[in-house]
Write the structure tokens for this entry.
Amino acid sequence: MKRAAFPSRQEIRVINYMALHEHIRTAQAIIKSMSVPDMPVELVMLNEEIEKKFSNIVTVAHIIEKNPEMLADFINVANKVVVCKEPIRDARTATHLMGMEEIRNLYACTAIKKHLADDYYERELLSFSVKVGLAAAELSYWVQDVSRTEAYMAGLFHHVGVVYLYRRDKEGYRALYEPQTTQPFDAHDRELELLGTSHTHMGLVLAKKWHVNDNVAKAILLHHDQNFACVASHHPKVCHLAALIMVATYIVLDTQDEEFVHSQLKAYRSVALEHLALPDTALRAAESMVRKFGSTGLVVASH
């Protein structure tokens, strides 16, 4: 009797690919069954203008000014995330001091954030994600191919899937999600096993729906995968963004409460640091950024 052969590497890749697509299809079905807003009209207009061969900075400024509430939040975030020679005080100053891609990324953050804090728990989730975004933005100074706005966007939206799975089953999903704070690998695997999808797959689908930067969307998918560097080996920026989310998450949890820092969370950070090779200076700078701005009015400004 012949012993069953182990699957080859190619067969394993095919199995993993099929499983990934099944998890994404499940996420798509869940999102289709829920009330999920389309991309805000101001963001559609901004994307269309920036995509033009010769985009007009005056038109870009006018689009940003259309919604005063979103403008205030945009300026607030820009002054914390983007390094400029002088403070950004209005939309026209922003168009002169920031690149078009930076404006697009931060305005997307401002526009989408409005839909992510319906109750106290969601506001807590968003507050945490803002801090992760700030830490990731600060760390990106030491990562050559990632801009501060891309890093901030990745950190801010890395748990957008959590919000929508929580809305679907508030008590049940909290019990699945909250252990991932201390067990980012094992508890995420349990979520995937029980739901047939996870908040990372939901995050990918939502990011695609809202036309978020493609590298950011893929990093959201991978930020609980300890093999992220292998999975995205041909996409270095995706690897860097996923690793930034992971290190930034550790930093935020460490600044909040030492009881979160269990062995698996340390392993989560170590896997990411192996890929980024950040100096201690970078980690201290990110921690200082979280302590300085993490409790300020970044979340409530858009509500």
Notes: DSSP finds 17 helices and no strands in the chain. Residues 66 and 137 are 27 Å apart (CA to CA). Residues 296-303 have pLDDT under 50 and may be disordered. Residues 9-32 form the longest helix (24 residues).
